[in-house]
Structures are given as C-alpha cells and as structure tokens.
Design goal:
The complex is a heterodimer of chains A (about 180) and B (about 60). Chain A is an alpha+beta fold and about 180 residues long. Chain A has two domains: about 45 residues; about 130 residues, Cupredoxins -  blue copper proteins (Immunoglobulin-like, Sandwich). Helices cover about 20% and strands about 30% of the residues of chain A. In chain A, strand 2 and strand 3 form a beta hairpin. Classes of the chains: A alpha+beta (about 180), B mainly alpha (about 60).
Chain lengths: ~180, ~60
C-alpha cells in the first residue's frame, strides 16, 4: 500500500477523531467530577428550597403581606429579607442588608415565573409562583448592588429591577421592631 | 457572454477535475494536524476561560443554597 493511498488518509483522520473524542471525554469527565466534588464537599448546589405557598393569597396575610416585606432582624440577630417579584417590579424596590453577616433572602411571586441575581455575588435563583425561593449569602463589600429580573416575564421585564443597599455596621441600625429600610441618600 | 462549461454529469467522478493526485495526497496528510491545532486552540481558550471564572470567581463567592 502506498503512502498516498486514500485508506491511509482515512485511517489518520479516524485516529485524529478518536483522539479528539478521547480528549473531549476527559474534559467532560473532569468538569463533571469538579462540579460533583464542590457539590459534595463545599455544598455548592443550585438553590433547591422546596416550600409551597399560595400565590393567590400572597398579599392578604402571612409572611409576604405588604407590612412584612423588606429586611427584618430577629431577636437572635439573624437577618431575613422578604420580597415579592411581580410584573414588573420587586416589592420593596430597595433592600437594605448588612456587611459580613449571613442574610437569608426569601422571594415569592404572585403571577408568573421570575428570576433574580445580585451583581457581584452568587445570589441567583428562579422565583416560581407557588414556591418560596430561598437563598443565603454574606455581602462582603458595601455599596449599592443591582438586582435585576433575569427571567423574561413580559413586556416590562427590562424595567424590573431593584437595588440592594449593603450597609456597614454603623449604618445598619434596625428600629425597635427589628425592621430597616434603605438609607436615603 | 459567458463561456459554456461542459457538463460533468456523464463524466466519471475523477476525470478532468484538474487536481493533481500527489498534491491532494500531500494536503490530505496535513489536514488532521491542522484541524487538531485549530479546534484544539479554540477549545483550549474556551476551557481556560471557563476554569478561570469557575475557580477564581464562582467558587470564592461561595454557596447560596
């Protein structure tokens, strides 16, 4: 068989394709192993809180009634933020949070599926009607962060965003009822 | 006025295509290497970008679950 016989070329091409497939398999295996490793050892998983809530009655009573929205500091010092994602706004539109303290963020939707992220953090979750979306985080830098809706929810989607105001310890002073709103600047 | 090209419908596949078989064979020898280098460098850049963001941005920000 001469060196220029078509079968020789086909063999080279097949060998290259097999090598490529091997390389891709190694990369995919390594990536999946890395994700599995961080999920098991560092608990880095997608938010997966399964907690049901009646979307038709959100505003009437209970946790997501209007008077209960915003940031609350409990007697034990834990900070909880409750907000509603609705077409086409977040209620409240500004959320005050402390620096370097664990914060629990809870969201619910009365209408359609929304999503949100907070810039510069790993906060990123869907807000599905009928469920409470819950994530925990710790804000390490002060300042105003943008919190846009990242799941298309209708014609006003691009106008749907809120501000997260990260306050330092001397600025984060909740009232006697444990509630705190954004500082006016 | 364009010159009419002779139809190739009735010709055998390799007849008269004006390609030198030796030159074709020489090109074909370097095709797998060239494809590997091109696709390899494109994928390598993508993988490096992914790893840098995953290890230097995503992981240090920690879990939110």
């Amino acid at each position: 068989m001469s060196e220029t016989h078509p079968e020789v070329h086909e063999r080279w091409i097949l060998r290259t394709e097999l090598l490529w497939a091997f390389g891709v398999s190694v990369f995919i295996t390594a990536t999946l192993s890395m994700i599995l490793f961080t999920a098991l050892t560092m608990a880095i998983n997608p938010p997966s809180n399964v907690e049901r809530i009646d979307p038709k009655a959100l505003h009437l009573s209970g946790e997501f009634a209007e008077h209960n929205l915003g940031t609350t500091v409990s007697a034990d010092g834990s900070v909880t933020v409750r907000a509603i994602a609705t077409q086409f706004m977040f209620v409240p539109s500004c959320i005050a949070v402390p620096t370097n303290r664990r914060v629990t963020l809870r969201f619910a939707s009365p209408d359609v599926i929304h999503g949100l992220l907070i810039t510069g953090t790993n906060v990123n979750t869907m807000v599905v009607p009928g469920f409470v979306a819950q994530v925990h985080t710790e804000f390490t830098r002060g300042g105003d962060l943008l919190m846009p809706c990242h799941e298309y929810c209708g014609l006003g989607h691009s106008e749907m965003w809120a501000t997260v105001q990260v306050l330092s310890d001397d600025q984060f002073k909740p009232g006697a009822d444990g509630r705190i709103s954004c500082a006016q600047r | 006025m364009p010159v009419e090209q002779p139809s190739t419908v009735d010709s055998p596949p390799d007849a008269g295509d004006g390609i030198d078989e030796a030159a074709l064979a020489s090109v074909m020898r370097s095709v797998p290497l060239g494809a590997t280098v091109l696709a390899g460098s494109a994928v390598a850049l993508l993988v490096i970008g992914y790893l840098l963001i995953y290890l230097l941005v995503f992981i240090p920000r920690g879990s939110v679950g």
